[in-house]
């Protein structure tokens, strides 16, 4: 086996720093070098359940640097690969003074056939960047807003891997079971397509999880959690899912200072010294993060010049008890409230789940939450819970109090109550497998407030599901469902919004372009395996 199992991936960057993440086949020293630019940084691997990882931190880079790099393992060059068709990978730092481009999307099935899932927007995007040419604009950041892997909808390649290590008829059937299964899911998602592997090595990438990274409808309700923890196989599944997410995704979202202050990261590295293994530490951390959401914050925020990006965990940090239901636990909500401030040109709030859904769906989910909470009695509550789980009614609208509190915060920022109002406040989301733009109607807001959805990168809705969502998107569909919500005594939402662009049901990737006080967005879809075509574009600020 090659010494480099997965990566390199360019993860957190700032104006002067960059982080390279790798998985290796054995304990070793990993170095990132660029002799021409004086870069030589290294790190020892740490070990979790027999797998070896390293994060190499590079400091002292120039703003807006574009530094070609190599990766060495114990002195031997392992990247770039020999005879690669792709250009040299680069350390690409930020220079917000020149504007900021954030490309984003969610829901990517890999591997799989074109007949099953269509062409991969992420791969086509990589080929477009590789081809270059005049006018090719690179993103400064790639933001993956959920379902980077599908632990509950397996490919043939993943099923073959499972058959080679355990009885596929033992629960959970046709799903990932533990940390080892997850390591292979990530390898299939990020290694086997050379275009995607190259893209992740040369474009700074930030992520947040959604339900399929763990399991469909993850944390939809207290009843759902209780049912899952009653299964004898669930502990290995949830600790494997959260623990692998921490390693493969979350550590790369963190700045070098945040990683240095992380006690779990320090403990795992210490345990790995002298040939040890940090698997037990990661398992205990993951179980605690699931059972005690306030013990861990997966959300994060980064300020880049005049732009603040706030990435919100709307899955693991939910408050779900027999008496209370919240999209975020109290501590997480206080943190989000602190981030929702003015004094920037653009405030971007990324949540895997759309904050503003088509009105019919919003009101249906709000009605269902009220009924499941007892608005129509105990029998209605039981029926409401069944509908909630069967129909995936667990977006922001299905956590009405959380929706209301965030809406009021955003409106306050837009009015200028929390410092000078931004030019734009935008929610960036995925999850629902189609793309659109919704605009908030708020006459007293000095900010343009929008919901930008881009989904899927590669997993389109088909048949009746597409038709149902197209109908729900229509303006006429909202009224009857608002009436239904009113019958369950759901209060009127604190803001109004209208759908202005879309819906597009194609595989897609979106790019938000920020220049000064201007904000624009463009959606693109794969024309074929190596090219993109425009789906739509919009000016957010006007």
Describe the protein's architecture and organization.
The chain is an alpha+beta fold and 542 residues long. It has a domain of 295 residues: Purple Acid Phosphatase, chain A, domain 2 (4-Layer Sandwich), CATH 3.60.21. Helices cover 32% and strands 26% of the residues. The strands form 6 sheets. It has a 7-stranded mixed β-sheet, with no helix packed on it. The chain has a 6-stranded mixed β-sheet with strand order 13-12-11-23-24-25. Strand 1 and strand 2 form a beta hairpin. The chain is globular, with a radius of gyration of 23 Å. The mean pLDDT is 96.
At the first level of CATH, the class of the domain at 97-146 and 298-542 is Alpha Beta
Structure annotation, total helices: 16
CATH topology of the domain at 97-146 and 298-542: Purple Acid Phosphatase, chain A, domain 2
Counting helices, strands and paired strands, the structural category is alpha+beta
Q: Which runs of at least 5 residues are low in confidence (pLDDT < 50)?
A: none
The rounded distance between the terminal residues' Cα atoms is 55 Å
Q: Helical content, roughly?
A: 25-40%
Main sheet summary: 7 strands, mixed
């Amino acid at each position: 086996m090659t010494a480099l199992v997965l990566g390199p991936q360019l993860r957190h960057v700032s104006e002067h720093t960059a982080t390279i993440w790798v998985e290796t086949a054995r304990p070793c020293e990993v170095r990132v070098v660029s002799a021409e630019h004086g870069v030589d940084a290294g790190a020892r691997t740490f070990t979790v359940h027999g797998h070896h990882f390293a994060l190499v931190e590079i400091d002292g880079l120039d703003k807006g640097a574009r530094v070609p790099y190599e990766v060495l393992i114990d002195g031997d060059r392992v990247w770039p690969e020999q005879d690669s068709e792709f250009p040299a990978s680069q350390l690409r730092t930020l220079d917000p003074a020149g504007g900021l481009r954030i490309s984003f999307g969610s829901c990517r099935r890999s591997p799989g056939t074109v007949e099953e899932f269509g062409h991969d927007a992420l791969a086509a995007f990589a080929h477009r960047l590789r081809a270059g040419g005049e006018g090719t604009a690179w993103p400064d950041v790639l933001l993956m807003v959920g379902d980077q892997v599908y632990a509950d909808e397996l490919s043939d390649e993943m099923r073959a891997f499972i058959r080679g290590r355990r009885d596929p008829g033992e629960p959970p059937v046709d799903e990932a079971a533990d940390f080892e299964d997850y390591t292979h899911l990530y390898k299939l998602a990020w290694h086997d397509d050379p275009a995607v592997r190259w893209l992740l090595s040369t474009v700074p990438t930030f992520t947040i999880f959604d339900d399929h990274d763990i399991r469909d409808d993850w944390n939809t309700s207290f009843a759902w959690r209780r049912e899952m923890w009653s299964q004898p196989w669930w502990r290995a599944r949830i600790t494997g899912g959260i623990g692998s997410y921490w390693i493969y995704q979350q550590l790369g979202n963190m700045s070098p200072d945040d990683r240095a202050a992380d006690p779990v990261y320090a403990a795992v590295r210490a345990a790995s010294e002298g040939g040890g293994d940090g698997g037990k530490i990661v398992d205990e951390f993951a179980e605690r993060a699931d059972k005690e959401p306030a013990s861990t914050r997966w959300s994060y925020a980064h300020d880049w010049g005049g732009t603040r990006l706030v990435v919100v965990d709307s899955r693991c940090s939910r408050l779900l008890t027999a008496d209370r239901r919240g999209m975020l636990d109290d501590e997480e909500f206080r943190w989000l409230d602190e981030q929702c401030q003015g004094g920037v040109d653009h405030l971007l709030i990324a949540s895997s789940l759309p904050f503003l859904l088509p009105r019919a769906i919003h009101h249906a989910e709000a009605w269902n939450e009220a009924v499941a909470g007892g608005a129509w009695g105990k029998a209605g509550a039981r029926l409401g819970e069944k509908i909630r789980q069967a129909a995936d009614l667990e977006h922001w609208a299905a956590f009405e109090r959380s929706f209301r509190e965030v809406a009021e915060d955003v409106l306050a920022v837009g009015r200028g109550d929390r410092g000078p109002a931004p030019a734009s406040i935008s929610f960036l989301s995925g999850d629902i497998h189609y793309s659109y733009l919704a605009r908030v109607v708020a006459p007293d807001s000095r900010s343009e407030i929008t919901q930008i959805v881009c989904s899927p990168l590669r997993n389109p809705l088909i048949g009746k599901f597409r038709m149902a969502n197209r109908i729900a998107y229509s303006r006429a569909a909202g009224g009857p469902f608002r009436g239904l919500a009113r019958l369950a005594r759901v209060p009127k939402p604190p803001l109004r919004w209208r759908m202005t662009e879309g819906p597009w049901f194609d595989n897609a990737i979106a790019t938000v372009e920020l220049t000064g006080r201007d904000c624009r967005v463009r959606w693109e879809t794969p024309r074929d395996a190596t090219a993109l075509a425009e789906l739509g574009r919009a000016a957010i600020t006007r």
